Amino acid sequence: MKNILILLTVLLLPLTADGQNKSSFSAREMADVRVATPGLFAKGNHIYLHLDSLKDHEYAFPLPGGKVISAYGTRGRGGHSGTDIKTCAKDTIRAAFDGVVRMSKPYYAYGNIVVIRHANGLETLYSHNFKNLVKTGDVVKAGQAIGLTGRTGRATTEHVHFETRINGQHFNPNLIFDLKERTLRKECIKCTKNGSKIIVETHTPDSRIAQSQK
User: Fold this and answer.
1) Which one is predicted more confidently, 214 or 134?
2) Alpha-carbon torsion 200, 65, 94, 129, what sign?
3) 0.70 cut: is pTM over it?
4) Phi and psi of 3, rounded to 5°?
């Protein structure tokens, strides 16, 4: 367990969970949003996202200057799987962290979508794009331009729909970013596999104080 924690502390290298460079993916990984990351929980039921160890150049808010127009979990019977952030049409969308583009294509109601897999198993998703500026397999750096805001797919205004996912399951992006202040939360995030679900929560060393989002 100690070794995997050391590995997962290294957030920002374009590696998979087994530590191997990967710029190609299976047909399923390139075709679908909701897919498990191979081997992510192979050594235990917990992984940790060490946001608290990141330097300023190792992360970026996906739409600098953007305002949240629809929060996570607030829409419709099934809830909203991400957060909608708006500035203006054809504004530049930035990669939140270093990673590898797993998916870049038109995808149903999402419209033009980019999904980036990061070294710790975290995935970030950016959709409704007017245009994608990266392709599947591209290695990207935090802050790199990956698309332009649009209203492709099921959208009524130009914006970016931003999601955070672990092992295919979405969770509240506000656990990663303070979406009002557009800043990274410098905390440790604990992800626990519980049957078919992943519980994502802030983590403290004594494990007694946590704010969870299932």
Assistant:
1) 134
2) positive
3) yes
4) -65, -40
